[in-house]
Amino acid sequence: MFQATGPARSPKPLPHPLSLCSPLAQSFSLKAQVKEMCTACQKTVYPMERLVADKFVFHNACFCCKHCHTKLSLGSYAALHGEFYCKPHFQQLFKSKGNYDEGFGRKQHKELWVHKEVESGTKSA
């Protein structure tokens, strides 16, 4: 009924799924070695206390308004140039100068162009 058609082969043992050669094991070992650091305090952030806002990692307690240091949540913040504010202070700082740059302590973007034009001698009146 059953006939052997060739030499008998013994089955090859499968590699252990977590052997050091397997890509799965390498990805686990790399993830285990990478420690995320809090953007605010520069200390290690563990998964239970991890909060990510605009691709920045924080401890829950470290995610605070730059102006008043009120604790922020993902639904109650506004960000500009990697700095985080509560919504009331974000609006207040914007309204104080009428633009995002001066209100938040930066030079206006148009002033950067004026300096470049003066240096190159192409200023037009």
TrEMBL record:
Residues 36-96 form the LIM zinc-binding domain. It holds the Pfam family LIM. InterPro entries: LIM_LIMD2 (IPR044115), Znf_LIM (IPR001781). The keyword Ligase does not apply. Transmembrane segments: none annotated. Coiled coil: none annotated. PANTHER family: OS06G0237300 PROTEIN (PTHR24206). This is LIM domain containing 2. It comes from Calidris pygmaea.
